[in-house]
Amino acid sequence: MEQQPDFVIVGGGTSGLVLAARLTEDPNISVLVLEAGREHTDDPRLRTPAFWLSVLGSADFDWSYNTVPQRALGGKVIPLSQGRLLGGSSAINGLAFVANSKAAVDSWAALGNHGWDWETLSPYYKKFHTLSAPSNLAEKHLRLSYVDSSVSGSTGPVQVSFPEETNDPLPSAWVDTIAGLGYPATSDPFSGQFSGAYINALSVDPISRTRSDATTAYFEPIKSRANLQVVTGAFVEKVLFDTTGNVPKAVGIQVQKDGRALGFTAKKEVILCAGVFGTPKLLELSGVGNRNILEQHNIPVIFENPNVGENLQDHPVSTVSVEVADGVKTIDALARQDPEAVGAAMQEYLTNKSGPFAVGNYTGSLLPVPDFAGPDGKSTLDQILGEIETSNSNPITGPFTPHHTSAVHAILSNPAESVANIFMYAAKANVKPVNSGSDIISNDNDDDTPPGSFISICAALLLPLSRGSSHISSSDPADKPTIDPAYLEHPLDLEVQARLLRYAETIIRAEPLSGFIKARGRRNPGAPADLSDLEVAKEYAKASALSCWHPTSTCAMLPLEKGGVVDPSLRVHGVEGLRIVDASVIPLATRGNPQTTVYAVAERAADLIKEEYGIVA
């Protein structure tokens, strides 16, 4: 094992493996990747798309974080999954392949990040993936006429496809219902300018119908390169700095591997790809962060930056389940692990690579807040903003607050922009899970009612103004960080989330979807029979809130005075030789699942590093 590679990459997840693959394209550049988890590339629970829920919460695959009790949610503790294995969260996520928006990315540049606008980043969204066209039958059934091959990738390593489930009437009913309510798909989502109901693509190989992730796409094809070392089961404890110069310089890392303490030196850089919670934790353990926190845990201060671990953003989601009419097929029987249903689904998958095991989450919509998009929308929004300002009820503070508020208000007030993901899955929800895993889908052990079949309508807030934090809980690297996303603490977030739930009620009652729903049927425990009343919707939004597991921004790419931790080259402010490349640098929550944006950021970061060091591709 080379003790002094050119680059030491901490974290073999989504972004870490992208960097490793791209930097080692030059045979003269050596790269060492250190991953705390193990490699599980061939595990069928990872490769089979629908099995993703079964691995969440497992110590073999998941860091299994939890939030502190959430103040705005009555003290509720929210489970948070993050990948702890080679491939990171790309290997355990729900496979939804959702594009960011032009407006959201352009706001990055407006916040002070030159070179991070849509025009610059959009080619990287295309670079990392290949989208396979749907069959003619699937295109017609799933209403995929909006797909535009010119804005999607055609040569990238991550394989992306659409479901080929053409016998299920629910997805097309979903799209037709929301289109009928005034929100048809306006364009291809990867154009950057999209709203409406649609079927999103999945990170699923179209031939094998197995998961395509950073491991299969980036690592497997190049793992035999002589200039690449990937070490699993390597728990990085801190970054080592040389403080003899005017500016502290990262020179290596300290690791625990198989009960032994090891050290590695980087000739050029240490690159942190440890994720939204792991990266700020490593910075703080290494002496970069808020002086008060570091001194509380007797950690010498290398560089004081109170922004480290701050600005945490995540997508809260509230869900209501409604019973479907007799004869409508859902996956509730699979959630109950009914032997006959599981056996039939497995046989269909093994024989034809089809059926419920072949797909992840794919029935969704990207929408404005309907209350703010109609003829009276602007006045409604202005009234709410005025009431919040007058009441002085915003608890969210910090140097990023005015810039964040301005960016979100601009997008909220544009009826062409999407700030909500309202999506559907065909099973009953459990809105009070105890793990990070499959218990978000009810197995009917949580109530005394007879088993039934349900669909769940989920309303996710994509641009929350609530921001929280993730900080070390002690100086012991083995201890998990203290995570507080502050869900729904900003009063505007609750106003928006309640209105999205109220719109979910409108969708439930609209044709053709309503034709699949049982009249006077049951709902999930605790769900109101009617969410049309705004105050009722607010209370249920808080009671049912969970995480979409889309955290970002704890080491935001921003100027230091605006709350930043890294500069536009993703170099850590105040030190040398240290860079961050993962979801923690994204300054504004992504419009939908962050997977695609993390890949794109990593691809662009690789080019920035190559340019800086004259690395030949």
Automatic annotation (TrEMBL):
Residues 464-602 form the Glucose-methanol-choline oxidoreductase C-terminal domain. GO terms for molecular function: flavin adenine dinucleotide binding; oxidoreductase activity, acting on CH-OH group of donors. Keywords: FAD, Flavoprotein. Residues 6-317 form the Glucose-methanol-choline oxidoreductase N-terminal domain. It comes from Triangularia verruculosa. Pfam families: GMC_oxred_C, GMC_oxred_N. FAD binds at residues 14-15, 236, 549-550, 594-595. This is GMC oxidoreductase.
